[in-house]
């Protein structure tokens, strides 16, 4: 009610009271009653659904009312009838399953979008196909241009590592850089090695095979031309479209920060891409951004100015550091050496003193800290660091995270629970590690301490599921199946069946627990009154089908709105269209289907 209306009503009331001699208190009672009965109407009511809410107070419902992008009420259809108004729309789901929008707890969004336009080597299981794809790409670029790509996994073709000599015959005029699937190793051809000054006398690496691991990648990465602002924006839009069609409405983004990469990339992407997209209405998924831990003072200053939420689309999450490398690159840090390399225990990427000092400084000023740790020794180092920081800075709700928590020594899952550390894990990594873990660690170590999802939950640790895209596919439906089944490629049985999750636990870990893990559980993660109306409609009428992986995403809603995708391509940055998106897993071909 505006001021003019209020004054007019007051004047009418006064005239009525004076002329009709009706007691003032009766008029006031009548007016308040009319105001109190003004109807609260929903914009949208979703009905005839099998709703998994991720809310323990009401786990299952069949209808939901939405207003202004937020949930008004969840329950049965009859309980929402008082919220129906003249402008209320109804959406009949026809018995389909509806779940909260999935939260992917670990993504590299812009690198994933960039990879969609480069040499795609994910899934290649033969040396000949690896070479063919690179040769084809090299034939399509001009002389002197870099050939970039990635996603290769040497374990798929028997374990032999690729070498520069595989590529040199057809790339004499083009430098090549191809990252392994985990981002901790890359292959350069001889021209790229020459440009980097790497030869037989170089200290790191010892032999110029073309393979560079973790920090050694700094020798080549600075030589690769920076991707332009428009290229990064296009990559972001492509990646956002893909995420949305997979049912992902929120991602925790660790950006272009990898060992050997510039710490400036995350900050450049914040201003050049994310804030650009937000200010121009091109955000279609929500992002929670983490920044290199070395830059914690800059993040503190930004949060002081803006707060943690830049908008309903962009949240400033915290800072990230690395404790070790990866299993596939034999650089994850272990107590015992690698089975085939008796002198290799992996790499300690950050020394403990530096890790403690940066973590303590960041935590003291209220930043959330996430640290990458894969090997058991790296995980213990991070847990020790977190315990020391908590004792130094005092108790508070800090929600420390360990990214990956892939291989744990006996007793470590209990420490996650005791210390309140979030285990941010990626189930689909175990699909690729099933055979390689046994080779690299030995059967006993691989079977006893790998991907201990159930043990972590049983120890009261918070589990948050993600993909690590583009290392693995961004596909929560597939990730949930993997967490439940744990059957690697080519296997007929589960890898440690005792560590399988239940369907309920897997769904919770991809929704409300994932929201908790990034301090967004008051806004997202469950279909609860007051929260943002992000949800996904699946192609099934029974939740059990999720465990079998026979389910697809039929529609994704963000703030109660359906599938608004962004067209990409030259001259189309940010043009919106209502569409669905099909993705060809084998060839990466994208089609808009209006």
From TrEMBL:
Membrane-spanning parts: none
Superkingdom classification of source: Eukaryota
GO MF term (any one): hydrolase activity, acting on carbon-nitrogen (but not peptide) bonds
Domain Amidohydrolase: 91-560
PANTHER family: IMIDAZOLONEPROPIONASE, PROTEIN LONG AFTER FAR-RED 3
UniProt name for this protein: Protein LONG AFTER FAR-RED 3 isoform X1
Biological classification of the source: Eukaryota, Viridiplantae, Streptophyta, Embryophyta, Tracheophyta
